[in-house]
Amino acid sequence: SRDQGEDEMTWLADHEPQPDEDQLVQTKLQQLAESEARNGGLTIKTGGQKLLPTDKTGPYYHRAKVEFTVNGTEQALYSWIGKLQVAAEFRAVTFLRMMPNKEDDTKIDATLIIEQWFVPATI
Q1: 8-state DSSP, 115
Q2: What's the CA gap between 82 and 85, in Å, rounded?
Q3: Whole domain around residue 108: which residue ranges?
Q4: What is the count of structural domains for the chain?
Q5: What per-residue confidence (pLDDT) applies to 2?
Q6: Per-residue confidence (pLDDT) for residue 62, from 0 to 100
Q7: For the segment 60-105, what is each residue's pLDDT rounded down to a tens digit?
Q8: pLDDT band at residue 108, thresholds of 50, 70 and 90?
C-alpha cells in the first residue's frame, strides 16, 4: 500500500548509512565481529577470519563480507549472532554452518558469513 511505501522510505531515510570506502567498511565489520565474539566467550579458530570479496553488483548498495569460524557454547553463539544480525545497521548473517565440537560435546563449531550493506563512496 501507499502508506507502507511511505513508512519504508521514512525508515530508509532514518537508517541509511553514509557513503564509505569498501575497505574501511570491511575492516570495521571484521573488528566488530571479532570483538563481539571474544567478549561473548567464543574462540576464533586459528585462521578463522577471512576477508571475502566485496559484492559490488548492486545498483546502489555494495556488500562487505567477512567469514568467521568460531567455537563456543550454543548460548554464546546465538548471542553473538544476535549482535551481528541488525537490520537497522544494514548488517546480516547470510551463511551459518554449525557442527558439534569433536573434543567437547558442550561446544559448537560454527562458520558464518557476515555482510554489511553500504553506500559506496563513489559509484
Answers
A1: E
A2: 5
A3: 2-118
A4: 1
A5: 77
A6: 95
A7: 999 999 999 999 999 999 999 999 999 999 999 999 999 999 999 9
A8: very high
Among 47, 46, 54, 60, CA closest to 28: 54
Residue 28, pLDDT score: 97
DSSP for 40-93?
A: TT-EEEEEEEEEEEEE--SSS-EEEEEEEEEEE-HHHHHHHHHHH-BGGGTEEE
> Which grid coordinates belong to 19?
557513503
The CATH number of the domain holding residue 25 is: 3.30.70.60
pLDDT at 123 (0 to 100): 55
What is the tally of helices (H) and strands (E) in the chain? 3, 4
Residue 123 belongs to some domain of the structure: no
As a residue count, the chain comes to 123
User: Which grid cell sits at 47?
Assistant: 585462521
Q: Is residue 22 part of a domain?
A: yes
pLDDT at 1 over 80: no
Residue 20 lies in a domain: yes
